[in-house]
Amino acid sequence: MALGAAAPGLEVPPQHEQISHTKLSADDEWNLQQERMYRMHRGHESMHVEMILIFLCALVIAQIVLVQWRQRHGRSYNLVTLLQMWVVPLYFTIKLYWWRFLSMWGMFSVITSYIVFRATRKPLSGRTPRLVYKWFLLIYKLSYAFGVVGYLAIMFTMCGFNLFFKIKARDSMDFGIVSLFYGLYYGVMGRDFAEICSDYMASTIGFYSISGMPTRSLSDNICAVCGQKIIVELNEEGLIENTYQLSCNHVWERTRFLYGQILDWLRYLVAWQPVVIGIVQGINYSLGLE
Fold this sequence. Notes:
- 61% of the residues lie in helices and 3% in strands.
- The protein has 290 residues and is mostly helical.
């Protein structure tokens, strides 16, 4: 009997065709991965419940700890959070090969490092306060514009307007999410670095001291930020910047701050959420949960 021939009366088992992943579309590849994940975790419902409970408990405990830390030691909390926000995206950028974000992150880091260096020098140059103000004003405007464009792009996609321009929903949604993240991320970073620079400059000039007793005072026509003469009056509309009076009666030229409170949640999302997830994964691994 030839080896290649089948014996009479015996059925040849069907040969399953190997699926070539190179022939699958992106959606089919995603569906295949989801099916494999479902088969792998089938029958582990009780284990998944335990993992969810651990995750929720970790979130609650982390939130309590962070709130107490911020209330009791606000300065150290802000510095550590800023460091986390600066380093954590760099790790994911290199790991996921997001070179576009890495290039923007590098440019922002180099220029901001120079601005911080100038703001922390003693004696303080007379041009430094205006330089600091102009740089972070630019960051504010750019981040605000990116945030608005990203939000509009997301709404544009959800309403289906992308079909009129023959733009794929995935492409327009990705553009909106990336633009919104850029706006929020660099908005928070610029805001935090601006506070650090302003504290250092105020302490160097003499408007602020640790003991709480300033060594200098301001005239009514001098800006509390840059130390230069105020050109735009309180109730006057300026072309570039307007003049505002703080609750402490200091007069400050600044732009309108519309979404500052919205940026606070991003600190927790970028800086501390990866830490919480890492702790949860460590607990699950030690308990044998998968």
